[in-house]
Design a protein that fits this description.
heterodimer; A: 238 residues; alpha+beta; Ubiquitin-like (UB roll); Alpha-Beta Plaits; 3 domains; five-stranded mixed sheet; two-stranded antiparallel sheet; 29% helix; B: 621 residues; alpha/beta; Glutaredoxin; Rossmann fold; four-stranded mixed sheet; 19 strands; 39% helix; globular
């Protein structure tokens, strides 16, 4: 067993686990997008960033690809992590604003603006389809082409591949092109519709079951809490 | 295993080295060494060599004078140049028509040809020998210096300057641990950019348990304006090989690779030849010099992806996969090429190893600063008088390199900034000129050591435009795996491009800065983590220029075409019509001896009129 510190807690992990797997085992949720349990890890979407190290020498790494080490110190929710993560979501959103998955992430993490020009490309190059095709469907019909800003996913030479059996695995797993967001105007906006809905947790307030990952992030329960405090104060005065 | 016919034993090689050294000492022929790296050849060194050889043949002077084709001498500005041995007379800008005089007058009668001497731009004095030239005096050419002495295609020439002596010393007297300790205590750090201590890296790989280990020489030099690795490979390939063999012996590797970009045909040719020659002499192969230690070195050609200079991407490329970085750990020293422990060093690092072994760690660690030891080769380019490769001890200031060695800025212009470390590096302003060059201080100032590119910029350079140039390079060269790097560089480029086009809005600079920090933080490999440096360093030191573009819609340096206009100053215009002809858009009209007019709607701001005007009657606003 490997000993490490996860958000100031001493935890143990199996040899070969990643930080993400360890966090999941301990019930700590880290958002992911290009990660899928059935596929090899990729580390491309940069959503699962965590901060490792202590003191001045800390750095951000993708928890889905980083193996646990003895004595590793991990923080999953520092300001640095959240800032970077928010920027990643904003970047993704500006590429594929129609994706419900990404709009939901934006809502969840309080990304309320899109400062880059929307491109509506519908592919965020997370590579899930490429790995799905190769690893689960044994197809290897699609892959990445080019690099940098010219990168795209396609079949070799952009022609219909004989390897493709039209199984649809790539579409099934795609976080961007299948589930469409039906918010007000996702093309040019961040819909944030989910933020305006009433969360279920307010009725039965439970810190451990917060649907915004950590208690108090969305603010609804805090709003609920305040009158209670006043009641208590009032009661004290009386 | 038995020796093949040709391969030699340790003692035989020792004898050969001794003989060759003696031969060099006794050599009474006058040698004309012609700098003929890729750059020299591009400036016509081959024609010079041909005509020199022809002249020697015509005059039947073969036993008195010889022409030696060497690698780059470093002083690009003076190419093609000739250095005479043993007198060290230095001739620059040599043309085939000079060859008769060079042979007859200088070589035979020691008569100096004044017109071929280098003239110092600041003192106007002529320099006779290479050591008199300010470009060379402050340098310490420990690694590059031998380029002048040897023919890179001849292993005997390398023997004659004591080449492979360090390898013999290693094999004979040192065990692997001792080699690693020597390298460790010499304090040398990786010359490829990140500056990781080489000895510690070697130790990691040595300690990793495996049946097979690999060493790799990273010659995928891709920074714009950087060419020191190329010059070392072209001019002294055996030195790199010697370093690699010593490293392999210390690490316990039996297979090595040289990952070299295919755009370096001459370096590729010379290193291939060097490997072949080393094999013939038994310096490479199954059983090196009968010691039982074996090393094979293969060449892998890179296909031109900048990111393949990154260790894990390079390994993927050698394996035949797409060159994309992977998460570290596991580090290559533990799980590298084909999941075996692998040690990767840069060309220049390998080139330093024979020196450390020969002169010892104590000697080496005296050069440089507390944490950065030895010398570093920089390619000094841009707006600088003496363009070239300079090798200087660590700790030298930027001012010394740019003004003493580099001879300052041409045409008396003002120094504005220097960009170090390639696209991932940063721009340092005049206030930082007295910064001692070492890994830490450069990083602190917002740049990096990088592989050693050094681009000097004068007052006519727009820093926003510079940031745009590097971002454009990076958005092309990012592998595209990480969202942060792929989208980040693209979006940063979009914002900067918008600013240079005069469409910058309030808030753009802040957004650019926020994005830059996120890209730096969130990316997986070194490319992405440093991709924001061009933006961050220019924002740090030249924020006012960004603001001028966004708020005033002006480009202070007069570079960004959408933000400038050319104006004819009526008082100065003599009506000479010189500007009318070069204008491609017929935007300037006028008659002889009458003030011309410039139609701004037609003007495409190419600057042709500005260049053509002899009376400074056209200004940029």
């Amino acid at each position: 067993m490997i000993n490490l510190k996860l958000n100031k807690l001493d935890v143990k992990a199996e040899q070969g686990w990643t930080i993400l797997e360890t966090a999941k085992y301990y019930g700590l949720e880290i958002p992911t997008l290009c990660y899928n349990e059935g596929l090899s890890t990729y580390g491309g979407c940069r959503l699962c960033l965590v901060e490792i190290g202590e003191g001045e020498n800390t750095k951000l790494v993708s928890s889905c690809t980083y193996p646990v080490e003895e004595g590793l110190v991990v923080h999953t929710d520092t300001k640095r992590v959240l800032n970077a993560r928010k920027m990643m979501i904003e970047l993704m959103l500006s590429v594929a604003p129609n994706s419900k998955t990404i709009q939901d992430l934006a809502s969840k993490f309080g990304v309320t603006q899109m400062r880059f020009e929307a491109r509506n490309e519908e592919c965020i190059l997370c590579g899930l389809c490429v790995r799905m095709c190769a690893e689960q469907m044994d197809g290897k019909a699609i892959g990445f082409q080019n690099r940098g800003h010219k990168r795209k996913i396609s079949t070799p030479f952009d022609v219909r591949s004989e390897e493709c059996r039209l199984c649809g695995g790539c579409m099934y797993i795609c976080p961007a092109c299948q589930l469409r967001c039906h918010g007000p105007d996702p093309d040019s906006d961040v819909c944030n519709a989910c933020l305006t809905m009433d969360p279920t947790c307010v009725d039965v307030y439970d810190e451990l079951q917060c649907w915004m990952y950590d208690a108090g992030r969305c603010g609804t329960c805090v709003r609920e809490e305040e009158p209670n405090k006043k009641d208590i104060q009032n009661a004290d005065k009386k | 295993m038995k020796n093949t016919n040709k391969s030699k034993s340790l003692d035989q090689i020792k004898k050969i080295i001794k003989e060759q050294k003696q031969a060099r000492k006794e050599d009474d022929k006058i040698t004309l060494t012609v700098s003929s790296g890729t750059c020299g050849q591009a400036r016509g060194s081959m024609e010079v060599i041909d005509s020199l050889k022809e002249t020697i043949e015509q005059k039947q002077l073969e036993d008195k004078v010889r022409v030696k084709v060497t690698g780059c001498h470093g002083f690009c500005e003076a190419e093609p140049n000739i250095i005479f041995q043993p007198d060290n007379i230095f001739y620059q800008h040599v043309k085939p028509k000079h060859s008769k005089d060079i042979i007859e007058k200088t070589a035979l009668n020691k008569e100096i040809l004044d017109q071929l001497l280098y003239t110092d731009p600041s003192t106007n004095e002529k320099a006779k020998k290479d050591e008199d030239i300010s470009f060379y005096t402050k340098q310490e050419r420990l690694v590059l210096g031998d380029n002048v002495l040897i023919d890179p295609t001849d292993i005997n020439d390398y023997f004659s300057i004591g080449g492979y002596n360090s390898l013999l010393k290693t094999l004979e007297t040192l065990n692997p641990e001792q080699v690693i300790n020597t390298v460790k205590s010499s304090g040398i750090r990786g010359r490829g950019g990140a500056g990781f201590p080489t000895g510690i890296k070697w130790e990691f790989t040595r300690k990793a348990k495996s049946d097979e280990k690999y060493i790799i020489c990273n010659a995928d030099e891709g920074d714009p304006g950087a060419y020191m690795d190329r010059s070392l490979m072209e001019g002294n390939p055996h030195r790199v090989l010697e370093g690699m063999i010593i490293g392999a012996y210390a690490i316990g590797a039996n297979q090595g690779f040289i990952y070299i970009r295919d755009e370096y045909p001459l370096a590729l040719k010379n290193i291939t030849l060097a490997i072949q020659q080393a094999k013939e002499f038994g310096l490479l192969g199954q059983n090196i010099l009968d010691t039982g230690f074996g090393l094979e070195i293969n060449i892998v050609k890179g296909a031109g992806a900048f990111v393949c200079g990154e260790e894990t991407a390079l390994i993927a490329s050698v394996e035949g996969k797409v060159g994309e970085p992977k998460q570290r750990p596991p580090f290559p020293a533990v799980k590298g090429l084909w999941k075996k422990p692998t040690n990767i060093n840069n060309v220049e690092t390998w080139g330093n190893i024979p020196l450390i072994i020969e002169k010892g760690a104590d000697w080496y660690s005296q050069i440089g600063t507390k944490d950065s030891k030895g010398t570093k080769i920089f390619s000094l380019v841009g707006k600088i008088n003496n363009t070239g490769l300079v090798e200087v001890p660590m700790g030298i200031t930027l001012r010394e390199i740019i003004f003493d060695i580099g001879g300052g800025i041409p045409e008396g212009k003002k120094f504005k900034a220097v960009q170090t470390g390639g696209p991932s590096g940063g721009c340092l302003p005049a206030e930082k000129l007295d910064l001692p060059i070492d890994y830490e201080s450069l990083t602190e100032a917002g740049s990096i050591m990088g592989s050693g590119g050094m681009i000097v910029m004068d007052e006519n350079t727009c820093m926003v435009d510079v940031a745009k140039y590097f971002l454009n390079f990076l958005r092309d060269e990012s592998c595209g795996k990480c969202l942060s790097c792929r989208e980040g560089t693209q979006r940063m480029w979009e914002i900067v491009n918008k600013i240079t086009e005069g469409n910058g809005k309030k808030g753009d600079i802040e957004l650019l800065e926020e994005l830059a920090y996120a890209v730096k933080d969130a990316s997986m490999c070194g490319l992405g983590q440093t991709a924001a440096n061009p933006v961050l360093s220019t924002l740090r030191y030249f924020r006012d220029e960004y603001e001028a573009h966004v708020v005033d819609k002006k480009c202070p340096a007069g570079v960004c075409k959408d933000l400038i206009r050319y104006i004819i100053i009526e008082d100065k215009c003599t009506g000479c019509m010189a500007c009318i002809k070069p204008c491609p858009e017929d935007a300037i009209t006028g008659e002889l001896k009458k003030v011309h007019t410039l139609d701004e709607n037609k003007c495409i701001r190419c600057g042709a009129c500005y260049e053509a005007c002899k009376f400074d009657a056209i200004k940029i606003e």
